[in-house]
């Protein structure tokens, strides 16, 4: 007879039910938080200006004339829009 039993050795239906309940509770938690964040930011939108000049955000190296490579920043292109 097998006497090596442990409380963490949950096999079969019990282990499957515990895993299912755990995964469904994680899914419920993440779904609830996604809805809360979406509701909080639904009226907080912005407008993009000069979208053709948006750079990649990578600023390595120097340009041909020896000056450091400068990329565009988000605050140069994103304008908050106030909802009235």
UniProtKB/TrEMBL annotation:
Pfam families in the cross-refs: DUF4006 (PF13179)
Transmembrane segments: 12-35
Keywords: Membrane, Transmembrane, Transmembrane helix
InterPro entries: DUF4006 (IPR025065)
Domain of life: Bacteria
Name listed for the protein in its UniProt record: DUF4006 family protein
Species whose genome carries this gene: Sulfurimonas marina
Lineage of source species: Bacteria, Pseudomonadati, Campylobacterota, Epsilonproteobacteria, Campylobacterales
